[in-house]
C-alpha cells in the first residue's frame, strides 16, 4: 500500500496568486474537490470558494516565513501547496533594469522556492506527506521574447524536477503544470500581434481556459497522482 495516497476531503491547501485568473480557478476547483483552500495574494480578492483569503507579498523570503507561520498557527499544516504567484509584463530585453529583472525572479521563481521550503519543513517535522504543484509556462520550455519571464518559468521547471528528487524521500511530491496561452487578465498583456500569432499556431485553434489548468492541478495535487513526481504536465492545446 502506498503511504503517499491520501483523500482530498478536508485537506488544507494553499494557493498563491489566488486573486488571478488561474488562481481563482484553482481555488474553486480544489474547494469543489473537498479541500479547504487558503488563497494568498497581494490583493484580498479570492474566489468565494476559498476557506480564507490571506494577503502577502511573496517576493521576500521573510514574508513567506511569516505567512506560513501564520497559516500553521491559525489553520494547521497544509498538505497541498500550489505555487501560482507570478507576474508578467511585455518588456523589451534592452529595457530591463536590475530591479525589474530581480522582481520577476523573486515572484515567479523565488516565491515557489521559499514557499515550498517552508511547507516542507513543517511536513517533515510532522512526519506527514504532501504535494506541491508549481505553475510554470510554455515560455519556460520554448523561450519567450519576454526574456526575464521566460527564463523565470524555465527555472520553475528545473526547480520542480530538482525538488521532486530532493523531497521524495520525505513523501513530498513536487510537480508542475506548464500552461500555454490561457484566457486570463494576465494574457491580455501579451501584445496583440503576438497573441494572434500564438492563436494561429495552436492546433486546437483557441486559447485555454483557466479551469482547464485547474483540472490538471487538481490531478497532480491529489491521490490519483500518487506516483507522479518531478513531472511537468503541458496544458497548451498542442502549441509548440
TrEMBL record:
Name assigned to this protein: SDR family oxidoreductase
Organism: Streptomyces cavernicola
Family according to the record: Belongs to the short-chain dehydrogenases/reductases (SDR) family.
CDD domains found in the cross-reference section: SDR_c
Amino acid at each position: 500500500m502506498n503511504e503517499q495516497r491520501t483523500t482530498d476531503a478536508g485537506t488544507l491547501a494553499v494557493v498563491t496568486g489566488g486573486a488571478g485568473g488561474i488562481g481563482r480557478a484553482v481555488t474553486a476547483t480544489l474547494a469543489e474537490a473537498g479541500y479547504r483552500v487558503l488563497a494568498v495574494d497581494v490583493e484580498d480578492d479570492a474566489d468565494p470558494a476559498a476557506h480564507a483569503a490571506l494577503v502577502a507579498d511573496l517576493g521576500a523570503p521573510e514574508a513567506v516565513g511569516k505567512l506560513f507561520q501564520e497559516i500553521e498557527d491559525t489553520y494547521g499544516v497544509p498538505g497541498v501547496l500550489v505555487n501560482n504567484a507570478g507576474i508578467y509584463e511585455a518588456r523589451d530585453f534592452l529595457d530591463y533594469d536590475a530591479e525589474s529583472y530581480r522582481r520577476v525572479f523573486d515572484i515567479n521563481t523565488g516565491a515557489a522556492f521559499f514557499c515550498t521550503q517552508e511547507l516542507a519543513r513543517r511536513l517533515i517535522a510532522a512526519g506527514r506527506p504532501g504535494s506541491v504543484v508549481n505553475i510554470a509556462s510554455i515560455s519556460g520550455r520554448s523561450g519567450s521574447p519576454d526574456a526575464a519571464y521566460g527564463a523565470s518559468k524555465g527555472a520553475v521547471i528545473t526547480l520542480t524536477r530538482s525538488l521532486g528528487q530532493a523531497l521524495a524521500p520525505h513523501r513530498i511530491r513536487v510537480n508542475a503544470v506548464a500552461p500555454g496561452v490561457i484566457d486570463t487578465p494576465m494574457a491580455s498583456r501579451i501584445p496583440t500581434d503576438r497573441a494572434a500569432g500564438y492563436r494561429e499556431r495552436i492546433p486546437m485553434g483557441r486559447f485555454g481556459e483557466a479551469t482547464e489548468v485547474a483540472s490538471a492541478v487538481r490531478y497532480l495535487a491529489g491521490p490519483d497522482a500518487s506516483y507522479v513526481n518531478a513531472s511537468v504536465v503541458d496544458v497548451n492545446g498542442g502549441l509548440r
